[in-house]
Task: structure prediction
Amino acid sequence: MDIHSAEITSQKKPWYRLLYVQVIIAIVIGVVLGHNWPEQSQSLKLLGDGFIALVKMIIAPVIFITVSTGLASMNNLNTVGRVTGKAMLYFITFSTLALVIGMVVANLIKPGSGMNIDPTSIDPKSIKDYLSATKEHTLTNFILDIIPTSLLSSLTGDRILQVLFVAIIFGIGLSMTQEKSKPVIDFLHALAHPIFKIVEIIMKLAPIGAFGAMAFTVGKYGLAVLWNLIGLVGTFYVTAILFIVVILGLVAAYNKFNIFKLLRYIKDELFLVLATSSSESALPNLMRKLEKLGCSKQVVGLVVPTGYSFNLDGTNIYMTLAALFIAQACNFPLSLNQQILILLIAMLSSKGSAGVTGAGFITLAATLAVVKGFPVQGIALILGIDKFMSECRALTNFIGNAVATIVVARWDKQLDESVLKKELG
Result:
């Protein structure tokens, strides 16, 4: 029995049972409740946090089983290095492009120009926790943190790269001892069925999680906060949409699939990411759907978890755009050399943001601190709207990784293009 066989296609379901419809309804109710009863709505944060915690609970076993069984079926382990190398080349190229686009847009639109903020008048207390977190947010610590304290500890934590590291090592071990390890491989294949059934059960709770998360967000921050900095929010959303439609759209077209058909195919997951502001909330379902699209289990298992740390298009656009916005708002002139320095530092620091709460904000603070004299306390200006921008970051990151997986699978001839065409059609 295939792990996808239990999945019911949307065509067979009445409209009110479609996940994305339920999530949209939950979002609307959450917004209305948060706007009209803000204090009471903030207590609903438990529902959103609880749902994300449930998803994070199952991410480690999903990645471990997918990657280890995928590698166990390989006769040639050179494939692992080849797929990983191609994925990293893709990630570096498009992550850098996203940083450049954010910087170009900020220079053209100048969303912070004319605000004339005196950085000395900003209370640094609101960002104290983020600034202190940057001290531990280094590339060295990030690399060392990939190695877990023990083989099993990675499966009980929430570090995606630790799980991926152990799964790759374990999968290689299985591949090199296939005959002797056959009972273990059979056990892992059997274990996949209940694990993915748990994912299916958890996804039924998505509307409840979306309702709680949205009610809390609107109740705590209010809709009015958007109007204070509508220029930055609007610029970021338009830039992200253009990146998806134009840049990723051209990449998709070159690789013989349509970006809009892909977005329609993963619409359930997109609405879930939008509501929870977390791309991790839809990670297990994304992996299943990419396999169903014709991508090999090996490529999905290697590219998706790695992309969640190294392919953060939305975060990269946000970083350079927000950095220049703060400089413009505080009348801090940035030379071309300083802008290039920010871009280079952001290329490195953004890779260490996986698994860190408030990662986009912390990474931004760490990047800006490198420029001598930069009014880092200016990030307090965007603290109030960061929650609204995080949804766009998560969506762009999520879509970027879906496209990357299909492209790498096709690049490595591990994509069934007839299946892709049929599913998207």
Residues 1-11 have pLDDT under 50 and may be disordered. The first helix runs from residue 19 to 36.
